[in-house]
Amino acid sequence: MYDYITTYSGIHFVPTQPDMNFIVIEDIAHALSLICRGNGHVKTFFSVGQHCVNCALEAEKRGYSGRLILACLLHDASEAYMSDVPRPFKKHLKDYIASENRFLDLVYTKYLGSPLTEEEQHQLKIIDDDLLYYDLKELLNETSEGPEPVLKITLSYDFRPFEDVEKEYLELFYKYCTDRA
Fold first, then answer.
1. Model pTM score
2. Is 145 left (phi over 0), alpha (psi -120 to 50) or beta?
3. How far apart (Å, rounded) are the C-alpha atoms in residues 148 and 161?
4. d(CA 134, CA 136)
5. What is the pLDDT of residues 54-106, one digit of tens each?
6. Which residue, of 32, 61, 124, 157, is most buried by count of CB atoms within 10 Å of its CB?
């Protein structure tokens, strides 16, 4: 059994020992466009990539910095290499959370120059949670606690081919990434 995954671009990547040099934006965009939100327990296919695009577009409409817009786009990048774990289960997996945070720090360092500040993490979490509110409502018929968030973008949960999501993800990345690594 191998200790690595083979990425879309053919890289042998060891998720337990991530190397920044092997993190490739095309692998992230491709994988996230094919991974379904909600562990697939949704009314229709809606990708993690589309969620990330929506987060970035919402940050853009809120007038946030290019750095925070890019952080919103990249905030689920670990799922391209480590898989998605639903929040109710993830909160009990301290080692997984620590590994995910280390991985995201590498992603942010590679593409933003440094990990996120506490304030940036807070702003990103607000956007992520605001969109989660609507994802739960539209994709799972679930109600969330608290008031309905006000969004600046118009959400669509219509099916989109993964190629379209992947392309939009990369376009946003190159629009806001100053180091096109």
1. 0.94
2. beta
3. 29
4. 5
5. 999 999 999 999 999 999 999 999 999 988 787 788 888 888 888 899 999 99
6. 32
